[in-house]
Amino acid sequence: MRFHIITISGMPGSGKSTVAKELARRLGYRYYSTGMAQRAIADQHNLTTLELNQLADTDPSIDQELDGVFQNITQVPNQSFVIDARMAFFFLPGSIKIKLDVDLKIAGERIFSDTSRTGERQYASVDEVIDDILKRRKSEVERFKRVYHVDIDNNENFDCIIDTSYKSVDDICSFIIQKYQLQPMTAGTTR
Length: 191
Fold this sequence. Notes:
By secondary structure, the chain is α/β, with parallel strands linked by helices. The chain has one domain: P-loop containing nucleotide triphosphate hydrolases (Rossmann fold, 3-Layer(aba) Sandwich).
C-alpha cells in the first residue's frame, strides 16, 4: 500500500473543509485541518479567526504553533492524510497539492448560510462576509510572503486548481480520486 498526503488549499468559502473531509472519508485517510487548530487558538485568546490572523501579523508564536503540526504529521508512519490548510502545500512539498477556487460572492453566500462554523463572528449580510474574506486573505497573503517568502495565490504552487463555484462535493472528490488514481484503503490497513 502506498501512503499519500493530499493537501487542500483555497480561500474561505471555497469548500476546503467539506471536500477534504469527504475525500478523507471516501479514501479511508485521516483528516486534519489547521482551521480547527486556528479556531481553537482564537477561542483561547477570545478572538475571531480574522482577529487571530491580525494578531499573527505581529506575534510570530501564532504561526509557529500552527506550523509545528506539519512536522508531526510527517512523523506518523503508515498513514495517509487529507489536510485542509492554506500553507500545507508549502510544508509538505511531496503531497498532492490541490487548490480550490470559488467566486467571491458564492464564497460569501456559503459562509453566511453555514450555521456550523465555529470561532467566527455572526454576520449581518453576505457583503459583510465578503469584506471579512478579503481582509483575512490580504492579511494571510502578506504575512506568508513576509514570513515564508511564498505567495499562496500563485497557482504554480499547486498540482491542480478546481473552481468549486458550481460543482458538487461529489464531483470534486470523484475528479481528484480519478485524476490521481487513488485507491481507498482496504479493511485491515493501518489507519
